[in-house]
Design brief:
The complex is a heterodimer of chains A (about 110) and B (about 110). Chain A is mainly beta and about 110 residues long. The radius of gyration of chain A is 13 Å and the shape is globular. Chain B has about 110 residues and is mainly β. In chain B, the strands form two sheets. A five-stranded mixed beta sheet of chain B has the order 1-9-8-3-4, with no helix packed on it. Chain B has a four-stranded antiparallel beta sheet with strand order 2-7-6-5, with no helix packed on it. In chain B, strand 3 and strand 4 form a beta hairpin. The radius of gyration of chain B is 13 Å and the shape is globular. The relative contact order of chain B is 0.34. The chains are: A mainly beta (about 110), B mainly beta (about 110). Chains A and B meet through strand 5, strand 9 and strand 10 of A and strand 4 of B.
């Protein structure tokens, strides 16, 4: 089966610019997650979707971050405007159901100049 | 939230078994113990999980202490491709949130 697909793989932008990341989960997986991973740290959950509903967005900085999962399949994560501290790897994961093991994509590495 | 404690790094020789320890003294009765690993430039990969009994799969074995306050991930025969950061995570049964720590960076010596 195809894994979780993320694009782009790398993104370099200047601060204050907008940026968007895209994720295509494994087919049939109802639960989708976005994580942020800073250098030398483990991933931190930003938001979790059950189908198209965001069931946990408590760690999403809502002043500049937004996410959507239209039709309960693909998802996009947006930052507007980006700040220097947003440089990190953004990971998407999906699972068949909330309690099943999570399958991760290879992430988007974001660099802010 | 229950926390886990792992050594920052470990080394092992190729083709030898590796035992990766994890302490979780504040674990509750419904917490599952999960292990993920992350190879360089890749996303984390699920390895194994268990509740009370020892578990085996094609990748590894998980040995859980009788009091569940600690566990050990066992790689039976390490290869260079096993060099990665290994995360021990407690997963709350009622809430599927998983919280990653810093993990153990495993170095495999040829």
């Amino acid at each position: 089966e195809a894994g979780v697909v993320q694009s782009p793989r790398y993104k370099i932008i200047e601060k204050k610019q907008p940026v968007a990341f895209w994720c295509n989960p494994i087919s049939g997986h109802n639960t989708l997650y976005w994580y942020r991973q800073n250098l030398g740290q483990g991933p931190e959950l930003l938001i979790r979707y059950e189908n198209e509903e965001a069931v946990d967005d408590s760690q999403l900085p809502k002043d500049r971050f937004s996410a959507e999962r239209l039709k309960g399949v693909d998802s996009t994560l947006k930052i507007q405007p980006a700040e220097l501290g947003d440089s990190a790897v953004y990971l998407c994961a999906s699972s068949l159901e909330g309690h099943q093991p999570q399958h991760f994509g290879d992430g988007t590495r974001l660099s802010i100049l | 939230d229950a926390k886990t404690t792992q050594p920052n790094s470990m080394e092992s020789n190729e083709e030898e078994p590796v035992h990766l320890p994890c302490n979780h003294s504040t674990i509750s009765g419904t917490d599952y113990i999960h292990w993920y690993r992350q190879l360089p430039s890749q996303g984390p990969e699920y390895v194994i999980h268990g509740l009370t009994s020892n578990v085996n799969n094609r990748m590894a074995s998980l040995a859980i202490a009788e009091d569940r306050k600690s566990s050990t991930l066992i790689l039976h025969r390490a290869t260079l491709r096993d060099a990665a950061v290994y995360y021990c995570i407690l997963r709350f049964r009622r809430d599927d949130k998983i919280i990653f720590g810093k993990g153990t960076r495993l170095h495999i010596l040829p």
